[in-house]
Amino acid sequence: GGQLTSGVAIAFTATGDKVPGTVNTGNVTLGFTVATAIPVAGKITLALPVNYFSAVDSSKVNTLSSAGATCTCVLTKATGGATTDTVTCTTAGAVVAAGAQTLTLIAGAVTTGVPQAASTFQVSTSTDVALAVAPSTVALGGQLTSGVGIVFTTEGDKVPGTVSTGNLTLGFTVATAIPVAGKITLALPVN
């Protein structure tokens, strides 16, 4: 085998699919150049940041830019101190030819994971070693802004050990809508 080259960043065709916990409604694409053709039943392995995708639907038949080449993919979550999840795609339909390829994860193929900053991912195949330069992922979710400190509406509630009798408020601006049953997590000092 050889080495994959020319990695192309992950792209979401539907912006809303970058919202954590969303099943993709548009295509998710990425690219690379194959040095050694991948036979039918060969493997393409993506190493992604932990929880970039929370689920992969193994029944979806995804496409490759080689005429007739398809693949189905499965997600393996990181264990222990591992920093990447892997998505392993098994090719079908036709040989994936040497040359530039686009892997298209079709609508419904993946569910985005937790909010995270843009990072990088890696690709390898059963015939070629990983890219020398890892391409980019896109950020999932957004960044909270305009934080407003905690305010006690009842002055006596500030006394340690007191059960609050008034409201406690705080504020922030979300970049991405929080869905029904979504979670807001507060990290407070101990005690």
Structure, explained:
The protein is an all-beta fold and 191 residues long. Helices cover 0% and strands 40% of the residues. It has no helices and 14 strands. The protein has strands spanning 2-3, 5-12, 28-34, 43-49, 53-56, 62-64, 70-76, 84-92, 99-105, 110-112, 122-125, 128-129, 145-152, 168-173. It has an 8-stranded antiparallel sheet, with no helix packed on it. A two-stranded parallel ribbon has the order 1-12. It has a two-stranded antiparallel ribbon with strand order 5-10. A hairpin with a 5-residue loop joins strand 6 and strand 7. The radius of gyration is 22 Å and the shape is elongated. It starts with a strand and ends in an 18-residue tail after the last strand. 23% of the residues are buried. The mean pLDDT is 93.
Spell out the key features of this protein:
191 residues; mainly beta; eight-stranded antiparallel sheet; two-stranded parallel sheet; 40% strand
In a few lines, what is going on in this structure?
The chain has 191 residues and is mainly beta. The chain has strands spanning 2-3, 5-12, 28-34, 43-49, 53-56, 62-64, 70-76, 84-92, 99-105, 110-112, 122-125, 128-129, 145-152, 168-173.
Task: Summarize the SSE layout with pairings.
Blueprint (H helix, E strand, L loop, with lengths): L1 E2 L1 E8 L15 E7 L8 E7 L3 E4 L5 E3 L5 E7 L7 E9 L6 E7 L4 E3 L9 E4 L2 E2 L15 E8 L15 E6 L18
Parallel strand pairs: 1-12
Antiparallel strand pairs: 2-3, 3-9, 4-8, 4-11, 5-10, 6-7, 6-9, 7-8, 13-14
Q: Would you report the number of β strands?
A: 14
Shape: elongated
Radius of gyration equals 22 Å
N-to-C order of helices and strands: EEEEEEEEEEEEEE
Poorly predicted spans: none
Structural class, from secondary structure content?
mainly beta
Oligomer: single chain
Mean pLDDT: 93
Q: Please bin the fraction of helical residues.
A: under 10%
Strand order of the largest sheet: 2-3-9-6-7-8-4-11
The span between the termini is: 58 Å
